[in-house]
Amino acid sequence: MKSKLPTVGTTIFTVMSKLAADTGAINLSQGFPDFDCDPALVDAVARHMREGRNQYAPMQGVPALRQAIARKFLALYGASYDPDAEVTVTSGGTEGIFDAVAAVVHPGDEVIVFEPCYDSYVPAIEVSGGTAVVVSLRYPDYAVPWDEVRAAITPRTRMIMLNSPHNPTAAILGADDMARLAQLVAGTDISILSDEVYEHIIFDGVRHESMARYATLRERSFIVGSFGKTYHVTGWKVGYVVAPARLTAEFRKLHQFVTFSTNTPVQHALAEFLDQQRGYPELAAFYERKRDLFLDLISGSRWTPLPSRGTYFQLLDYSAITSEPDMDFALRLTKEHGVASIPTSAFLYKQAAPPVLRFCFAKKDETLRAAAERLRAL
Ligand SMILES: Cc1ncc(COP(=O)(O)O)c(C=O)c1O
Fold this sequence. Notes:
Strand order of the largest sheet: 2-8-7-6-5-3-4
Bound molecules: pyridoxal-5'-phosphate
Helix content: 25-40%
Strand content: 5-15%
Shape: globular
């Protein structure tokens, strides 16, 4: 059979998490918490199950949750979205990304992506017959080279995909980036996919630059969110996409046949939490403390941290320890030193991999302490 995705293998997250499990290593590779969510959230889901909310949700999502999402966008970003026509609940951010790309990209279209690049983006483009045009973020600050983006735009450019706060680099977009982006897309029909799944995990008092804040960007953007990241429930796979009505109409054509609708009792429970503004307002401080703890624990070692401005990831430069390629070192670090991480080469398409590994600090303090002790020994 001729593969539609001939270069796609098993994702690096699956590979490293399995290796960590097989070898008993501390798993700072895949991005998920090793602590539990708020027990009241589990109680709320159980209550909705017991009360019989166990059948298909409406295709576009439970109204209470769509309304709560729209209220959050208004409160945080001053953006008004119609919950009926512009907000869709999805089975995780991943489904939202896939449907948005598939809704917009036709065979022969080009989509600009930035490397290091979250691993689902390029397959989503290619399975729709599009071509990913890869622009490299500038190591080591991972800034967007806007002149290169300008040069990469052609009449076939259908979409630009951005991610801030950014996985795996923990870099963020600033107001100046938004201004450059707005200039570049003005007068074109280029859509934007803005992956904002880490919107609430941003540090040092800096504000999140959502596409929703800027009218000229909002009008062409699919904004992707994930409750997995926000409520420590990555296994529940519930997210959302907000987009202007004309984009949402096309988006829902895909969504209704990819998954039709998303887990009903979980949507009801999340609606309550979101409406009561629970969880997300304190998330940045919660993870900032974990970032600082992890940095403190490894300070004075041969690992050099790069700035982590958002997400729950920390890049560490290992050039003082070894000159091995990142994949080789990540494997050896797991097998011989008992700490699993993610090599950034897994997110790269054309740039040579720098000597950095990604560590997830969404972990209990004792997990971070145990991992840091092993890292310090190198
Ligand atoms: C940048 C980015 N986008 C999207 C996702 C997917 O989110 P979800 O788990 O809700 O599908 C992730 C998850 O790790 C991510 O890091």
